[in-house]
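Page 37, continued from 36.
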């Protein structure tokens, strides 16, 4: 059976490395409790995208940005559950029993090789996009800390801008980290990164409140339709982690409670995101920068927070790239470890990071393109195909509307984000 062969060829079965269907808080002996599943969802969803939310709120307005964020969170939860329902339905048939362990497996079960190829392509683009944003964040932050200039003229290092120097400085170290065949022992660093993120967010939010009470800048509630797609892309990007839903549900001890735990996790995360975005914009108004931590000034606490975030994103990079390597090595190297292929991918990611000037603009691009397709279009399409004989007309219509509207939003949102990145006025 081709499905079995395709699974067996996965590089993760040869090297036992993390892939898109490997939760970070894994437990090979026991299934996960509700609290552990909650933590896994938090780790899978929360990422660097939150740091671009205040800047997004500046563009969209704080009311429009909040409503958009909560709507995206609700729709993301709904589409995640569509994946779970589709997997459960297929696994109720003997021929698919215990075979659908990842998003790509579900794509194959529903649409054959085309489905798996589509999911694989979206996962490669999204995961690589996350890592590109990490490099941009690290470079921009280090340039702000160590090469700050009160003038508008950016200092040069060996004839290059500081951002380019810092990105290239990361390159040889990332070649080494991404060459490690087994990265399971790096998973705790990703967990630590989320702890640091929470701490950094707490520091930033306290500073935001104090600055707002002192300055009370002019604020805008609604930014207009022209920035709708920009804000949508950043919001979608912020809720990364759809590829982790199926393995998280599979590893939960009480699967009947998974929907409730996932809903509570998404509600907590969206509340945290909304508060962070609103407070950041309230504090700095029109002066809000694309990476909110650069608004904090140049104190010791601010510097430590920013350096801590850079270190943790630096070590999270190889973990986030592992799904890309799993797909690439399965496709081009028959599932075998290939260091030169990994080096080429790291080089491509580095070159793209050098070309993107703005952190939040890039979040919007990735969110508007691959994240919308991966998070909304494909789950609705798979659910529609699996349940087409059982859904009533309104269920069919809603799934079809998600597919069509998601596709339109992805195309137009990508176009809008590209205009923003290259400074072209529509």
């Amino acid at each position: 059976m081709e499905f079995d062969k395709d699974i067996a060829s996965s590089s993760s079965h040869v090297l036992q490395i993390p892939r898109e269907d490997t939760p970070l808080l894994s437990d090979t002996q026991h299934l996960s409790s509700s609290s552990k599943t909650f933590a896994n969802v938090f780790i899978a969803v929360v990422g660097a995208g939150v740091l671009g939310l205040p800047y997004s709120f500046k563009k969209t307005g704080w009311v429009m940005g909040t409503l958009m964020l909560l709507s995206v969170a609700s729709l993301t939860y709904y589409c995640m559950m569509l994946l779970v329902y589709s997997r459960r339905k297929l696994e109720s048939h003997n021929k698919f029993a215990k075979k659908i362990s990842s998003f790509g497996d579900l794509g194959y079960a529903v649409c054959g090789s085309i489905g798996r190829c589509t999911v694989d392509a979206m996962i490669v683009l999204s995961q690589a996009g996350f890592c590109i944003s990490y490099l941009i964040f690290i470079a921009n932050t280090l340039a702000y800390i160590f090469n700050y200039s009160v003038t508008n003229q950016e200092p040069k290092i060996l004839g290059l801008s500081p951002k380019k120097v810092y990105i290239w400085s990361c390159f040889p170290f990332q070649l080494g980290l991404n060459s490690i065949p087994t990265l399971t022992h790096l998973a705790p660093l990703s967990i630590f990164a989320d702890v640091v993120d929470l701490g950094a967010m707490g520091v930033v939010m306290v500073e935001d409140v104090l600055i707002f009470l002192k300055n009370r800048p002019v604020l805008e509630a609604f930014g207009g339709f022209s920035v709708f797609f920009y804000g949508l892309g950043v919001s979608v990007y912020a809720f990364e982690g759809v590829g982790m839903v199926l393995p998280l549900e599979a590893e939960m001890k009480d699967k009947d409670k998974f929907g409730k735990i996932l809903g509570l996790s998404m509600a907590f995360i969206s509340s945290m995101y909304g508060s962070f975005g609103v407070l950041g914009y309230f504090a700095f108004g029109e002066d809000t920068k694309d990476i909110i931590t650069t608004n904090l000034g140049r104190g010791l606490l601010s510097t430590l927070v920013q350096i801590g975030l850079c270190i943790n994103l630096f070590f999270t990079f190889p973990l986030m790239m592992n799904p890309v390597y799993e797909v690439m090595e399965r496709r081009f190297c028959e599932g075998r470890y290939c260091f030169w292929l990994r080096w080429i991918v790291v080089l491509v990611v580095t070159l793209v990071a050098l070309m993107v000037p703005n952190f939040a603009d890039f979040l919007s691009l990735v969110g508007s393109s691959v994240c919308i397709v991966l998070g909304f279009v494909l789950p609705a399409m798979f659910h529609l195909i699996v349940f087409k004989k059982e859904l009533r007309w309104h269920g069919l219509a809603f799934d079809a509307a998600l597919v069509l509207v998601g596709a339109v939003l992805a195309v137009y949102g990508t176009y809008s984000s590209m205009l923003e990145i290259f400074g072209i006025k529509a």
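Residues 1-19, 21-29 have pLDDT under 50 and may be disordered. Flag for discussion at group meeting. The radius of gyration is 21 Å.
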